[in-house]
Design goal:
Elements (H helix, E strand, L loop, with lengths): L1 H9 L3 H9 L1 E7 L5 E6 L19 E5 L5 E4 L9 H11 L3 H16 L1
Antiparallel strand pairs: 1-2, 1-3, 3-4
Helix pairs in contact: 1-2
């Protein structure tokens, strides 16, 4: 799969490469317990429910596979759930989630420019 995706991207088909990765399952593993779960994404789906078999608590470390390169996430639960763009940004700042703040800014900057 990685070879196929790499070749698609190398030949100017990055959109197809990204689409190929998204279709199917992403593997999640709780780094502490070793429990595993898959999250399945259909075509065009960007959000999927968190698997009930894995903890979703602040500080939980989750190893992610199936995205081309393995990654480890450290979860931070935002509570109460923020409302609106400004509330989300403030909650992410308080939780020190710089990468998510950057994505939020880039996403809404692109929408306002387009």
């Amino acid at each position: 799969m990685e070879r196929l995706v790499g070749n698609l991207a190398k030949h100017g088909h990055a959109n197809l490469a990204a689409f190929t990765i998204i279709l199917g399952a992403v593997g999640l593993t709780d780094a502490a317990s070793g429990k595993k779960a898959d999250v399945h994404f259909a075509a065009g789906q960007a959000i999927a429910p968190w698997p009930g078999s894995l903890p979703a608590a602040t500080g939980t470390r989750i190893d992610v596979s199936g995205l081309g390169a393995p990654a480890t996430l450290t979860l931070k639960v935002l509570s109460p759930v923020p409302s609106g763009l400004e509330g989300m940004a403030q909650s992410l700042i308080r939780a020190n989630c710089q990468a998510q703040i950057d994505v939020l800014i880039d996403t809404f900057s692109a929408r306002s420019e387009g």
